[in-house]
Write a structure and sequence with these properties.
heterodimer, B: 1047 residues, alpha/beta, five-stranded antiparallel beta sheet, 33 strands, 19% strand, disordered N terminus
């Protein structure tokens, strides 16, 4: 299972990637929205963890692009945000995110959400 | 006026009548005199002619008879030759030749020289013929007048009448002729006798105006008497020969009356012909006479004067009559004309009089006059035009006055209703006029302010400023100056006034300085407040932004701390390095705690900034509870607590903000776990009707009443030591309650110290995101209307098995501001009634299973529910049963909407609005009471003293007043007196809560005025609430009882 982490904060990126790798996932990383969109198309990850406040292109825009491209639109996007203040959850959902989690990361919770998304995609594929 | 008008007409009539009469009388009199004179002359002429002709006739008659003597005398020779016999025959022949009535007899009397032997006289008359009468002593006859006069005169002689006593014995007149012998010697006298009878008959038939048939008796012989005319005959000697009066005419022994003895006789005897006026037997008469030339007889005619002037009198009478008729006619004509002339004048006069009394309509009465084509018509037209003109002018004058008045009222009301003072001052600054609004600013009446100076109300500095402004304004005509001054009304009431001064001294209409005073105090204050508020909002926003940014900045490193420590923990675990692991766990849990604190602070700041949004979605309660369980289970185990989730098999899905719901549950459960050790933490979830509730019960330390009162306050934990012992910010409950309330739910708490606590959280199964919805779209659908109702709106529980009925009731009640809950059956209704404690219940009688009667009975037998008013809705009129079972009102279906609403309004006024007034000078005390009341669903007003409380009462009437006694300005005792003095506030129950030791005197003063007295300190909130409730319950009971009596 390949997970694309789009995160500008190096420490968070490092920690999250190492922890996910330890759980057996293959991790790809992008440092801004634009790179995230490009990598999503290139790497075809199974799940994208998208930070919302990103340089160059923010997470909402990046999500919209991912979801509007035919080859990446089926990839589940889980929004990660510290924007509890104005980070309206439904705003991320409106942007096309499939789920949402707040930072700081509770790994168990996040893993649950990741697995849920993978299950869903699997189910969809199975149906097809 | 009318009398004058009449008199004018009368005058005219009288004048015309008098003039006409005078002329007529004169004319008539003149005509009469003329006619009379003419008639007299004519009558005189006629009468004279008649007597003359009669006299002529007499002469002609005598002359005819005289033929005989003349014939005898004419032939002396033949007569001489005749013997007596022949002579008699001759005489007979002569007599026979005369008509028998004309001559009575003929004769011949020889003179003394007669032949011898000759008889004295030969005489044949009508009685003796054909024999002659031979009178005795014939010589004797020679002495007789008929003989002597004829002899002497030697011509024909007519004798005086005499009675022929010799032979014929009749009254006669003799016509004698001397007879001469052929030798010319006197031989005797021949004669013929005329009988006077005939003459008298002839005379008696001579009447005045015999030809006219005017007098009816003219045809017969004349008679004497008044009014009768007659004719008489007088001889030469003046003896009356013929007269209607027999006593005067000749008889055998009387030779006839002398004419001088009869009226007028003297005049007759004097002249041969004439007329005379006499009085006979009192009657005016005229006598006309004429003398016959042959016989010398006078024929006289006596005529009553009336017969002569009678026609003239008749004429005069007729003329007078005619004249009278003419005068009457003339008067009538004059009167009519006068009236016709005066009538329009009268109308004009009346119209003029009406106009002088401002009655212009009456000019229409002149129309009849105005159509005349004469001068009056013109006058009336002119008058009418004039009236029209006057009327128009009058009307426009009135209109102008009305406009003026309206305009005056308009401008006056503009001035008098403005909040600014509009005033006129003299040059010294004394008020001459001020609009009534001065009362609002200076507290004195506009009338009292006259001649006062505005400066009296101002501070010395501002007064000088005003003075200067006035001087500037007065330095030029029409000068204007604005100044802001401060007025000191009382020591703590200062007003900022903007005064605009306009110099209008040169304006004669004003002749003063117009000062326009505006109180800008409030505006300035409001502006200041607004600035402050703006600043506060800005600061708040800055704070929120700061917090948001800070939280982000704080979380990022925290993220790393938690993440790396967690990761290292796992690594240490893998390496079996227990020493590191325990330290790493401490770092991790400290990081988590810090995160929790940051989150709470963030939430609170969002709530306070009003930026907390709801995100309503449909989610599975079971799944959410699973999540919660998985989070809480480790916490519970940490304190060796047993975690029990009591719930039905499935709770289904609800519409709510899942994050907030979860956060609330997590908060309640983690609290329970935190404050309980080796006990039980139970979550009991159940769904009932529109609500879902979660009750978290622990067997922990519990809380005191004081702790409970502060429980939901932000930054408050039950005890400061709690924080130290258990950690946490103390924000969790405040946040949770706020979240619940955002979703139209709530959290309530029950606790017993040392035994445990139960928090019950309740939210609707279908939360409506009001904020969001209102922002997105304002749909006035019923559901929205209902949901838009404030949570405090009175709640009505509708128990009815018919959804249509419920729908109708819901619609009706929602529109009128009630929240509505529904139950489709009796048991459900009872359950909801217990859960919701609605303000009122409407109950259908006919329901399957448990019917309305049973529901009502159960409601009323449940002490907790018995107080809820029940309105029974029934198809039948079941009032009697309904009231007997305790229904507040019984309405028949289909129900009268207005009736239902009025009943409910009555109930909600008493029950639905629970508003309390707290009067206490200590803010902390007020806060405490407010908390207690508000957590029980009350709305609260506060007042720091009795005076403020009285002001508050004017704004809103509370159901109960909680009153402290010791207060500045107006204390509780005085306040109670004021309260009881007013009819409006007398019935409000008062609960006194005081720290003061109540003396017997105090009690006496308060007695009757208050319902209960509680001592501060010894009283806890629960008791206050209990007292308050019981007061209201008593009041409600009384109200319900009243209603029942009324029904």
């Amino acid at each position: 299972m390949k997970i694309l982490i789009v995160e500008d904060n190096e420490m968070n990126r490092d920690m999250l990637s190492r922890r996910l790798e330890r759980k057996g996932y293959i991790v790809a990383m992008a440092v801004d929205g634009a790179e995230g969109v490009a990598m999503a198309a290139r790497e075809k990850p199974d799940v994208i963890l998208m930070d919302m406040s990103l340089p160059v292109m923010d997470g909402w825009e990046a999500t919209r692009r991912v979801k509007s491209s035919g080859e990446t639109k089926n990839i589940p996007v889980i929004a990660l945000t510290a924007h509890a203040m104005e980070g309206d959850r439904h705003k991320t959902i409106e942007a096309g995110c499939d789920d949402y989690d707040t930072k700081p990361i509770d790994l168990a919770r996040l893993l649950g959400k990741i697995e849920a998304q993978l299950q869903r995609v699997k189910a969809d594929h199975g149906e097809r | 006026m009318p009398s004058k008008q009449r008199s004018l007409s009368k005058k005219l009539t009288l004048a015309v009548a008098a003039t006409t009469c005078a002329i007529l009388v004169l004319t008539i009199w003149f005509s009469y005199a003329q006619a009379r004179s003419a008639l007299e002359q004519q009558s005189d002429a006629e009468a004279l002619k008649q007597v003359e002709s009669t006299a002529g006739n007499m002469d002609a008659y005598v002359d005819r008879v005289a033929v005989v003597p003349r014939l005898i005398a004419a032939n002396p020779s033949s007569r001489a030759a005749m013997g007596p016999q022949e002579m008699v025959a001759f005489l007979n022949r002569l007599l026979g030749s005369l008509p028998p009535e004309e001559a009575f007899g003929v004769y011949i009397a020889p003179g003394e020289n007669g032949r011898a032997g000759e008889p004295a006289m030969l005489w044949v008359d009508r009685n003796s013929a054909p024999n002659a009468v031979r009178p005795q002593g014939g010589t004797r006859d020679q002495n007789k007048e008929w003989f002597q006069a004829a002899r002497e005169r030697a011509e024909l002689h007519v004798s005086e009448p005499y009675y022929d006593a010799g032979g014929s014995n009749v009254e006669v007149v003799s016509v004698t002729q001397p007879v001469y012998s052929p030798s010319g010697q006197f031989a005797g006298v021949a004669g013929a006798d005329l009988s006077l009878d005939l003459i008298r008959t002839i005379v008696s038939f001579v009447r005045f105006r015999r030809d006219d048939d005017e007098n009816g008796d003219s045809s017969g012989p004349a008679q004497m008497g008044p009014g009768k005319d007659y004719t008489f005959l007088i001889s030469r000697e003046g003896r009356i020969m013929a007269h209607p009066n027999d006593a005067w005419i000749i008889r055998k022994d009387f030779s006839g009356a002398d004419v001088k003895t009869v009226p007028g006789g003297v005049e007759i005897s004097r002249g041969s012909m004439g007329s005379a006026r006499v009085m006979e037997s009192g009657e005016a008469r005229r006598i006309y006479w004429s003398t016959a030339p042959l016989t010398g007889w006078k024929v006289a005619m006596s005529v009553p004067e009336d017969d002569i002037v009678g026609p003239a009198n008749t004429l005069a009478r007729r003329t007078a009559l005619l004249a009278a008729v003419a005068v009457v006619f003339l008067i009538f004509v004059v009167w009519t004309v006068g009236r016709r002339l005066m009538e329009p004048v009268g109308r004009l006069t009346a119209a003029a009089e009406n106009v002088s009394q401002q009655n212009y309509e009456s000019a229409a009465a002149l129309d009849a006059v105005a159509i005349r084509d004469d001068e009056l018509g013109q006058l009336a037209q002119s008058f009418r035009n004039m009236v029209r003109e006057i009327s128009n002018r009058e009307k426009s004058l009135l209109d102008a006055e009305e406009r003026m008045r309206k305009s005056e009222t308009y401008y006056r009301s503009l001035i008098e209703n403005t909040t600014d003072i509009i005033s006129v001052m003299d040059r010294d600054g004394r008020f001459q006029y001020a609009s009534p609004s001065i009362t609002q600013i200076f507290g004195i009446k506009a009338a009292e302010v006259r001649n006062h100076k505005i400066g009296e109300f101002l501070t010395p500095e501002t007064n000088a400023a005003l003075r200067e402004a006035m001087n500037v304004a007065m330095s030029s005509w029409g000068g204007t100056e604005n100044v802001e001054v401060e007025a000191v009304l009382t020591s703590d009431d200062r007003r900022i006034l903007v005064v605009s001064v306009h110099n209008m001294l040169d304006n004669p209409a004003v002749n003063g300085i117009v000062a326009h005073v505006r109180d800008v105090t409030e505006r300035r204050r409001a502006a200041a407040l607004s600035r402050e508020k703006e600043a506060a909002e800005m600061a708040n926003k800055a704070k929120s932004n700061f917090l948001a940014n800070m939280s982000h900045e704080l979380r990022t490193p925290l993220n790393a701390i938690i993440g790396y420590s967690e990761m290292l923990t796992e690594l240490a675990e893998d390496d079996g390095n227990e020493e590191y692991k325990s330290d790493l766990v401490k770092i991790h849990s400290a990081g988590k705690h810090l995160l929790g604190l940051i989150n709470d602070v963030l939430d609170i700041s969002k709530i306070e900034a009003g930026k907390m949004d709801l995100y309503v979605e449909t989610f599975s309660v079971d799944q959410m509870l699973n999540d919660v369980h998985s989070v809480i289970d480790p916490l519970a185990r940490k304190n060796s607590n047993e975690l029990i989730f009591e719930m039905p098999e499935s709770l289904g899905s609800i519409q709510a903000d899942v994050t907030k719901t979860r956060q609330c549950l997590l908060n309640l459960l983690s609290n329970a776990c935190k404050f309980t050790s080796q006990g039980k933490v139970t979550l009991k979830a159940e769904r009932s009707g529109p609500w879902i509730s979660f009750a978290v019960t622990d067997t922990g330390i519990g809380m005191t009443k004081e702790q409970l009162a502060k429980l939901f306050g932000a930054f408050q934990q039950a005890d400061a030591s709690t924080t130290r012992k258990f950690g946490g910010t103390g924000l969790g409950l405040a946040i949770s309650r706020h979240f619940c309330r955002m979703m139209n739910g709530d959290i309530v708490v029950e606790s017993t110290l040392g035994v445990g606590t139960t928090f019950t959280m309740r939210i609707p199964v279908s939360v409506v995101d009001r904020q969001h919805e209102v922002a997105v779209e304002k749909k006035a659908s019923e559901a929205e209307v209902e949901e838009a109702l404030p949570a405090g709106a009175p709640l009505v529980l509708v128990i009815d098995d018919d959804p249509v009925s419920i729908n109708i009731l819901r619609r009706t009640l929602t529109k009128d501001g009630y929240r509505v809950e529904q139950a489709l059956s009796g048991p459900e209704g009872l359950q909801l009634a217990r859960q919701l404690r609605p303000d009122a219940i409407t109950l259908d009688v006919m329901m399957p299973g448990m019917d309305g009667w049973e529901v009502l009975t159960r409601l009323k037998s449940d002490t907790e529910l018995a107080e809820i008013p029940v309105i029974l809705l029934s198809l039948l009129d079941d009032r009697k049963n309904g009231f007997a079972l305790g229904a507040t009102e019984c309405l028949t279906k289909p129900f009268d909407k207005d009736r239902l609403l009025s009943v409910l309004n009555g109930i909600s006024h008493e029950r639905g609005s629970r508003h309390a007034l707290i009067v206490d000078d200590q803010p902390e005390n007020r806060e405490l009471l407010r908390h207690g009341l508000e957590s029980d669903g009350w709305t609260v007003d506060e007042a720091a003293n009795g005076r403020e409380a009285l002001d508050q009462l004017k704004v809103r009437r509370p159901e109960v007043i909680l009153l402290d006694l010791m207060m500045p300005e107006m204390d509780g005792t005085e306040f109670v007196q004021h309260l009881r003095a007013s009819e409006l506030t007398r019935s409000i129950p008062v609960l006194v809560i005081t720290a003061k030791d109540i003396t017997a005197e105090d009690r006496q003063r308060l007695s009757g005025g208050v319902q209960a007295i509680l001592q501060k300190g010894s009283t806890d909130m629960e008791e206050v609430m209990a007292q308050t409730k019981s007061l209201l319950t008593a009041k409600l009971r009384a109200a319900v009882a009243n209603r029942l009596v009324k029904v």
